[in-house]
Design brief:
By secondary structure, the protein is of the alpha/beta class. It has helices at about 15-25, 35-55, 70-80, 95-105, 125-130, 150-160, 245-260, 260-280, 310-320, 335-340, 355-375; strands at about 1-5, 65-70, 90, 110-115, 135-140, 165-170, 185-190, 200-205, 285-290, 300-305, 325, 325-330, 345-350. The chain folds into two domains: about 1-10 and about 260-375, Alpha-Beta Complex (Aspartate Aminotransferase, domain 1); about 15-260, 3-Layer(aba) Sandwich (Aspartate Aminotransferase, domain 2), CATH 3.40.640.
Length: about 375
C-alpha cells in the first residue's frame, strides 16, 4: 500500500510512539488523582508532553497547553467557551465543519472572508467586515483541501489593532510548518496528523488566561468542593480522566519533531509535494486546485480527472494500484461550493515525512493512466 491520506491521519509514526502507548497501558494510573507510583508516573509524563508542545509552539508556560481528544473537541470547547449569540465573528469560506458547525450553533452573527478561484483568501476585505460588536476572528492556518497557507501574521496584526481575539485551527500545520503562539491568541490542534501522534489526542494552547466559560465540567482532580469548573488553563478544558496513554505517545511524537526540526520535515514533504505536482500539472484531463506560486504550502494536492467523480477516482487508485487517498468534500462545504466542486468533490493526495519519492512518482503515474483511460 502507498498511503497518501496523511491529512486525514498519519499512518506511519515514529517508532517510539507505539512503544510509548503500549508502555503506558500497563504502567500508567490516573494522572493528577493520587500519589502512588502509577499515578505520579502518568502525571509526570503528561507534564512532559505539555513541555514538548510548549517548546514546539513557543507557548512559554507548559500549563498554557490543555489536552482534549481532538481538534474538533478543542474548537467546540473554545468556541462555546468564548462566543455567545450576541457576538459578531469573522471567519472564512475555507473552514472545516469543526469550525463552522460550532459557530452556527452559538447563534452568533457571521461574516466570511471570501477567496479567489485558487482558494486564496482575500485578506484585504477583513477590515471592512469589522463592526463595533465584532469580538473574534477564527480561521484555519492552512486549507485541508487546497494546501494553501493563510497569511495569519497579517490577520493577527489586524486583530490586535482592533482588539479581536484570534482563534487559529492548526490541525493541518502543527508539526508540518512553523506554527506558534505569535500567530494567534488561541491555537487548536490535533495530535494524529502532522504531529505524528495517536488518534484521540489534541488540545488547546493559549497565551494565558482568557474569559472561557467552562463547557465540559466534572472532576478535575482539584478544587472538588467548588460548584463550577475552574476557568484557568489547563483545567477549564480537562474535566475527566485524561487520555494519558495517547498523550504519552504524543509526547514521543513531538519530541521526534523537536529533534528532527520542523524545517527539515517541511523540506522533505515539500520535495514530495513538488515532485507529484510537477508530474501532474500538464496532464490532459486533470484539474488541480490551489495556489502553487507560494513557497509555503502544506503537502496537500487535490485534483479531479474529468469524466470521473472524486469517489470513482479514489476507488480506482485503491482498487487497481493500492494507493490510499481521500475523496469527497473533506468537511469543507463552503470552499467546495466556492470552487464549484460540491457535486464532484476532489481527490486529495497528502504526503508525510515518511513517504518516499518513489511513492510520489508511482501515484502520479497511476493518475496519468487513469486520466488517459477516462479521455
Amino acid at each position: 500500500m502507498i498511503y497518501l491520506d496523511n491529512s486525514a491521519t498519519t499512518l506511519t509514526k515514529p517508532e517510539n510512539v507505539g512503544k510509548a502507548v503500549c508502555y503506558a497501558l500497563s504502567n500508567f494510573g490516573n494522572p493528577g488523582r493520587s500519589f502512588h507510583d502509577a499515578a505520579m508516573t502518568a502525571s509526570r509524563e503528561v507534564f512532559k508532553a505539555r513541555e514538548a508542545i510548549a517548546k514546539l509552539t513557543s507557548a512559554g508556560d507548559p500549563l498554557n497547553v490543555a489536552f482534549t481528544s481532538s481538534a474538533t473537541e478543542s474548537l467546540n470547547l473554545v468556541i462555546h467557551g468564548l462566543i455567545k449569540s450576541g457576538d459578531h465573528v469573522i471567519t472564512t469560506v475555507t473552514e472545516h465543519n469543526s469550525v463552522l458547525r460550532p459557530l452556527y450553533k452559538t447563534g452568533c452573527a457571521l461574516d466570511f472572508i471570501d477567496c479567489d478561484d485558487e482558494g486564496v483568501l482575500d485578506i484585504s476585505r477583513v477590515r471592512g467586515l469589522i463592526r463595533p460588536e465584532t469580538g473574534f476572528l477564527i480561521c484555519t492556518h492552512a486549507s485541508n483541501v487546497t494546501g494553501n497557507v493563510t497569511d495569519v501574521h497579517e490577520l493577527y496584526e489586524i486583530c490586535k489593532e482592533n482588539r479581536l481575539t484570534m482563534i487559529l485551527d492548526v490541525s493541518q500545520t502543527l508539526g508540518v510548518i512553523e506554527t506558534n503562539l505569535g500567530m494567534a491568541d488561541v491555537l487548536c490542534f490535533t495530535g494524529h496528523k502532522g504531529m505524528l501522534g495517536p488518534q484521540g489526542t489534541g488540545g488547546v494552547i493559549t497565551k494565558g488566561r482568557l474569559p472561557f466559560s467552562p463547557v465540559k465540567t466534572g472532576g478535575a482532580g482539584a478544587n472538588s468542593f467548588e460548584p463550577v469548573q475552574s476557568g484557568d488553563m489547563p483545567d477549564v478544558f480537562e474535566a475527566g480522566t485524561l487520555n494519558s496513554h495517547g498523550i504519552y505517545g504524543l509526547q514521543k511524537a513531538v519530541e521526534f519533531i523537536n529533534e528532527t526540526g520542523v524545517e527539515t520535515i517541511f523540506k522533505k514533504e515539500k520535495l514530495l509535494n513538488d515532485l507529484f505536482y510537477q508530474n501532474m500539472r500538464d496532464v490532459e484531463n486533470v484539474v488541480i486546485y490551489g495556489n502553487f506560486s507560494s513557497p509555503e504550502r502544506i503537502p496537500v494536492i487535490s485534483l479531479n480527472v474529468m469524466g470521473l467523480t472524486s469517489a470513482e477516482l479514489s476507488w480506482k487508485l485503491w482498487d487497481d494500484y493500492k494507493i490510499a487517498t481521500r475523496s469527497g468534500v473533506h468537511c469543507a462545504p463552503l470552499l467546495h461550493k466556492r470552487m464549484n466542486t460540491a457535486d464532484q468533490g476532489m481527490t486529495r493526495f497528502s504526503f508525510s515525512y515518511f513517504n518516499t519519492m518513489e511513492e510520489a512518482e508511482i501515484a502520479a503515474a497511476a493518475v496519468k493512466e487513469i486520466a488517459k483511460q477516462a479521455d
